[in-house]
Amino acid sequence: MKLFLDILLVITSLLLIALVLLHRGKGGGLSSLFGGGVQSSLSGSTVVEKNLDRLTVFTALIWLISIVGIGLEIKFA
Question: How far apart are the C-alpha atoms of 8 and 2, rounded to whole Å?
């Protein structure tokens, strides 16, 4: 079980990094300092952005569950 949780943690960590990097900057943050604020944003969110948000949240939940599972296994093993 520990090996499965470790592999799941590594896979979800890499996937979460990739999904966060795929998001478009919303402006006002550090991205606007480096020229990100120059681009005009389209009005509203597209279906792709909404699905990317859902996939990111789902991956983050799996990541969190695997972290808690590893912690519980370390505590009680």
Answer: 10
Please report the DSSP string for the chain in residue order.
Answer: -HHHHHHHHHHHHHHHHHHHHHSPP-SSSHHHHTTGGGSPPPSS--HHHHHHHHHHHHHHHHHHHHHHHHHHHHHH-
Reference 69, options 16, 12, 9, 14; nearest CA is 9
- Residue 25 tokens read as 């900057």
Contacts for 55 with CB less than 8 Å, ≥ 6 apart = 19
Q: What's the pTM value of the predicted model, to 2 decimals?
A: 0.74
Residue 20 φ then ψ, to 5°: -65, -40
Domain boundaries, the chain: 1-18+49-77
- Token pair in block for residue 13: 């960590």
The pLDDT value given to residue 75: 94
